[in-house]
User: Fold these one by one.
Assistant:
Number 1:
Amino acid sequence: MSKLLIKGGRVIDPAAGLDGIRDVLLESGKVKEIGVRVKGQGARVIEAKGMLVFPGLIDMHVHLRDPGRPDKETIASGSRAAALGGFTTICCMANTEPPIDNPAAVEYIIAKARTEAAVNVLPIAAVTKGLRGEELAEIGRCRMEGAVAFSDDGHPIMRADMMRRALEYTRQFDVPVIAHCEDTGLSAGGTMNEGAVSTEIGLPGIPSLSEEIMVARDVLLAREYGRVHIAHVSCARSVKFIRDARREGASVTCETCPHYFTLTEDAVRHYDPNTKVNPPLRTKADRQAIIRGLRDGTIEVIATDHAPHTVDDKNVEFNQAANGLVGLETALGLVLTELVGKKALTLKEAVAKLTANPARILRLAGKGTLRPGADADLIVVDPRQTWQVDPRQFASKSRNTPFTGWTLKGKVIHTIVGGKQIVRDGQFA
Ligand code: DOR
């Protein structure tokens, strides 16, 4: 396989504690050498002076809609969106039609990804059969087939005993259960955050308690039974519960998504269905608490919860619209502009939440770092370029973003997956 030398960029590799100007040599799908001056005889050279060089980003929360809804997204289209957004590894959620709740379905995703994916695609399998929360799925066999985590995302596991059994069982495989925390009794009928804004604009509310109560339950269960990763954390008290539980030694990690540190319930005032997401956009205080949780390390992961939906499913009355927004092509820009640009996080902290931390939580050997021997997954980003979010240009099949027209800083120039250049000069190679 050909050699690639990425020359003179500012390499940020949090897993290796590195932030400095380096050359990176890729050979045979692996990182071969990294140093101040690397020769790389016969290698094709990518000039990266003035650019940022990161390990390829990892998104541990993506909906690819295969099987079932190829009109919303496919493995091909979703992984292309990922590559343009700087993600070289994406983990796809199990709430497809039918769900990924058995070994054959896991095998299907892996086989399909091998032929059509532009980036690494790793399946997350369901915790319970049919995502119904009543009976454990074939967790052991799904793990053998290659599932990297287990989640009923989109649906909470309402029964605590079921969650307990899932944790006890997954513990032996050293994989986390990714918890969608929502008490469906409390959230029933709601379509936005419950509070002053929902009252004012007349939409039925989802109290933050619906999330908090389940986060509280799951961090308690994690103290006793196994490893929990809390998905899409949206509110202040969830951050507090997770922080306290971790201090007391519970095996709890968590993620938030760009929309929870950039937007609040105020964005819903115009009834734009692209602001409808589950959990809903919360208050200013919640948003600030999310940013504090990112800063102090309670929230170790930024994931997109990329949730593609068709125009038909979105362009309806707010209460009827599907939940979710696409995130793969805007996430890095939002992180660089809103967190790093506003000094909430250092560049190294931000990159860790998109690379080293998800790799560690999912035990992805050879990923999330540029240490010699690691997989040759890498991106080159121009920190000076600004760009405008234009959903018409998305590689995703869906366009449901609330960030249309936003000006973001930091453009993905090159994306390299396993030593192969997938994106070159911001376009598919
Ligand atoms: O907004 C959401 N959309 N939240 C979820 O938990 C599921 C997701 C989806 O699958 O569309």
Note: The mean pLDDT is 98.
Number 2:
Amino acid sequence: MKYKTLTIDTALPAKPRAKVMIIYTGGTFGMVRDAKGILLPFDFALILEHLPTLRNLFLQITVISFEHPIDSSDMEPRHWQAIGLLIQEHHQSQDGFVVLHGTDTMAYTASALSFMLQNLSKPVVFTGAQLPISESRSDARENLITALEIASSFKDGRPRVPEVCIYFDYELIRGSRARKVESMHFDAFQSENYPHLAKAGVTIDYNERAIQKAGTGPLSLLQKFDQSVAILKLFPGITEAAVESIVGQPGIKALIIETFGAGNAPTADWFIRVLKEAIGRGLLVLNVSQCPGGMVVQGKYETSRSLLEIGVISGGDLTIEAAVTKLMLLLGEYGVDKTRVLIGQPLAGEITMMA
Ligand code: ASP
């Protein structure tokens, strides 16, 4: 991966109050219109022209841009690795990180990074925008300014939010709990099963009790991904052929079934048989609900009892974004047997443990 690097000292001639690295990956945030009105990625060297108020933050900002910024629909595990490696490399020298990313798959990348960065002790704040920075009503300016403030905020001399999170539309939420829920309005993200980490109004109010504790040892990076994962989204009337075509794909090691409500699925004999045979062949099957809020409780209803009996693993209140990225990382790092054990255990505050 190739990058362009640029350092902007917004405090000069004074000393900067903190050092923040911006990793610019692309997305709507950095688009500007050319003479013909076509949206193109902008040159970050011009950021102070778009955002003169950056000067009031008194920060030393190092911007590392992907040489070719991308729409986040093109994100792949190799991009997650690249972002993880940049953060690992600069973790010591920076006080915090802001990752500028398209909103469409931001929740996947934020989830992946929260699992990859073990023992994180600095903030990694993802943000982006629904309207390009060049538009007068753009949300890009507020999102970036506040993300930078959060990434450079200290409490008792330590970074205040030492976790991977998403700041968007006045709310800070945990990365591994986030979902994109809105494509037109500015409130694009939601964390249905975990409280917000901060709300920005006249002041930024931090929800201290919800924020993860900083890692104590050195940062380590998990970065091997195995993409042999598939999702089967259930719907009333789904056919045996459709289920078989997904479950029977050659080479898959883990299958997420996106179930109804609290983890329920059809009770038809063929459905249970197809899954049971696949589990018998060694496939890991994880139950994640289609509901954004609440959790999978297998056995609560008759319609999930058989899933429990045949060895489907409960995904609890994992989001689909967290489930996919966590499976890929665990499979890549540890293989399928260990993944079966680790998938239900919290790695980055992404799942609620039941008492
Ligand atoms: N398609 C864009 C992306 O995800 C949308 C955005 O940035 O909001 O890259």
Note: The chain has two domains: 3-221, 229-342.
